[in-house]
Amino acid sequence: MPRPRFLDPTDRGLSQLGQEILPVLYRHRLLTASQLTQLLRPAATSTRYIRQQLEVLHGRGLVEASVRRTSRAGELLWYTTALGCEVVESGGELAPRAYRMTEDAAASQLQEHTLAVNEMGLAFVQHARRLGDECGPLDWDPEVAHRVRDGDSRLGDEAFLVPDSVLRYIHTASTADGGQQRMLLTFFCEIDRATMSIARLAAKLHAYARYARYIPQPALGRGRPKAGGYRREAWRARYPSFPRILLVLDGASPSQLAKRTDDLRALAAADARLQPAADLQAGVTTLEQLRTRGPFAPIVTPVLGDPEPTDVLLRPSATATSAA
């Protein structure tokens, strides 16, 4: 897959790799040199070249680093500065985001969660390369807000669903007649490092079910709605089909994560609010399985129904979409 170009090669005297690094850091907030190497230079045998480019970017005031809290060796975590964000946004290739990584945020307890979200995206990218599919360094987007309730935006969690990331992937599969079919897959991804209660994870599932059914209504004072209001679910304006829901567990032993999966399934099965949305494609796996076996191996335990791990992520949904 050709490497994307985001800035003019002569802009600020940056190398091609430096131009690639900036948008990736901007999009994903916090990355290690190792993660950047695997995303942008997968054939490299060390992180040396990436680290050299990061030092150049740092010298120009475009990136900054924070020490990883859990690292005894002082591993650095890199992020774009305000100036770096301005440079990326001026390129016009990425939609501007209001969020800015700050020195305090980069050094906070959210480090490991942010890195885990990016490790999940990296697993998809690596396996896409192996399978000949399409999923690149910018194909997941963290914390995209989706309204799930009409009314005052100050309701916060009550008004919006915010997945840890939205990931897009194009899978190519062989057809019975010897041809190939390209399928666009979109995922709502949630990462839990064994820090979130099972009840809260189950509540996330309920929020996804609510979003699947949410039909926005015109605000009062803006005219009368036609024929009783809008008739289409809000997600249809953003996605060709309702995204698959992937819950990725980490931060504990395999046996503990298996228990969390069982507990989540039990709560989901007992939640009558989820039953109308039983056709949602929602599954649970671990970050370790995602890394080692890939997203389309039989590693995903459905949240509802049969508990047998499956390749559910590749099974066609009722609204499956083919990519041109």
Q: How would you summarize what this structure contains?
A:
This protein is 33% helix and 18% strand. It has helices at 16-28, 33-40, 48-59, 82-91, 103-106, 111-131, 198-213, 254-270, 287-293, and strands at 31-32, 63-67, 76-80, 140-142, 146-147, 160-161, 165-174, 180-192, 244-249, 282-286, 301-302, 321-322.
Polypeptide structure, described:
This protein is an alpha+beta fold and 324 residues long. The chain contains nine helices and twelve strands. The chain has helices at residues 16-28, 33-40, 48-59, 82-91, 103-106, 111-131, 198-213, 254-270, 287-293, and strands spanning 31-32, 63-67, 76-80, 140-142, 146-147, 160-161, 165-174, 180-192, 244-249, 282-286, 301-302, 321-322. Strands 4, 7, 8, 9, 10, 11 and 12 form a seven-stranded mixed sheet that branches. β9, α8 (254-270) and β10 form a beta-alpha-beta unit. The two termini are 17 Å apart. Mean pLDDT is 86; it is low at 1-10.
Name a few traits of the molecule.
seven-stranded mixed sheet; alpha+beta; 324 residues; disordered N terminus; 18% strand
